[in-house]
Here is the input.
Amino acid sequence: MTQEHTQPASGDWARQAAMLKKDGWWLADLCGLDRLGIGGKDRFEVVVQLINPSLKERRTLHVAATGETPAVPSVTGVWPGANYMEREAFDLFGIRFEGHPNLTRILLPDEWEGHPLRKDYGVGKVPVEFLPQPLLQVDSPGQAPSGQAAGAALDSLGQVRVQQGQGPHESEEK
Amino acid sequence: MTTTQEVVRKIEAGGQGVFVEEFDEQEGHLVLNMGPVHPSTHGVLRLLLELDGETVLKCEPIIGYLHTGMEKECEDQTWRAANTIVTRMDYLAPLFNEQAYCLAVEELLTVEVPPRGKYIRTLLAEINRLSSHFVWFGTQGLDMGAMSAVFYGFREREMILDFFEMVTGLRMNHGYFIPGGVWEDLPEGWDDVLGNIVAILPRRIGEYEDLLSKNPIFLERTRGVGAVTQDEALHMSATGPVARAAGIDWDLRRDMSYEAYGDLTFEVPLQSEGDVYCRYLVRMAEMHQSVSLIKQLIEAMPGGDYKNMDPKLTVPPRSELNRSMEAVIHHFKLVTQGYTVPAGEAYAAVESPRGELGCYIVSDGGTSPYRAHVRDPSFVNLQSMGRMAKGGLVADLIAIIASVDPIMGGVDR
Here is the structure.
């Protein structure tokens, strides 16, 4: 399997793509890449895998996404199959594809903030929200302990200090 | 004069409107929401349909309901452990995910897999193709009203899963292929068990064909339904049975041979109409080819190492841990830290039951992938569904979904 690496300029990427298609190159894959940790001239890149069935060859292209919000021209006009792949790269990396017919989030919900596959969007850095509520809510008289009683019980064991009428989560926030 | 909103409210009040998104009274078009929880959408696929009566004017797949961020998760694992994440993507064909990932990592590592390792991988992949096609056969039949198909398909799949359990210890999500080979050698008696299965299967697949291939109801519901032309399939980057049913003569196993496929003889089934029936025929023929491949692989299974025995790459065999201090140290290092992979990038693709399953890997020279991207065939093939469904009936859509065979675990990753 031969693999060739080239870097077309992002400005005329759509034009180059059309020329490649004329030479019999078809789109196999397109994904985003954040070079924050490995260095490079531009932080964001679109990595395109092309395949040529008649030559039985593959080719890897790196198209730099430049600008304040990283952007590259869309190739959906050349290879319509790029549609979902570009949406995925937009969703997970925030790379804008200019000229894309429907550039919306595809895997994440529309109201999601941020682009998770970026390197500064760490694993486990999403704050988990706890609802402020008492530790135990069972409160039928004479049976199970109320939140307050449970707090006192735990306190007497010297384990957890639960403030009056508050759960541990709320006290942590203060 | 009622507005669209009022109509929607009226329909909702009638108790059926939860599915209706919009109704345009002038045009008589209805926007209907099918899924994500629907018995025939094979998981959590949601389709937004615009209907004129029973005719589908527009069909837009909406995905992401099973997204769990597996690609991000891989970046937090060692090279070995990331394999156990990718295997969970396309859960009906887990070994293909592992195969693509391992091939990509091996390309960066520039390590050789011994012949036996290659043959074992090829063998298990072909068996996996069968088990995946059995589920497709069952669900395709079930969706067309042929209830018995699902019982037959799952009965045969069960035999294969039992064999997988015998070899890998698990029925799915095996984590059995590792960069450098496979985790364990084939257990004793594997060839007898597999020989029995392979002896039974051709007759059983023949039964399937008797059941559906000439069934007038099935023909009526699949012939000419959901057709895409060769050109459309190429433009949509469709691969696998979807592309081959439309006349694209392309199979990575033959055309960009990997693992042991170069030593084997097989045919690539091809059809030209591109409709649901052609996709059915392609998959049925593929099953026969897989059985023949498995027979060849059992015959030709070479001896020797089942994995690259470099102790810096794969853990030493259990027996060595009892007598070699060095083996214990290597084991400890591999389990706690893992190995490093030279900086660079690689893309490797395999022919999964659904098409080209590619894995793009970037390494920064560390002990975990810098980026691991999987090109899932279901994800790409789903794009053709809008074209397939257009102009057909809602009932045809059910046949089309089954024939594309999307696995949402792979689509959403």
About this structure: Strands of chain A lie at 3-6, 26-34, 44-52, 57-65, 71-73, 96-98. Confidence is low (pLDDT under 50) at residues 137-147, 149-174 of chain A.
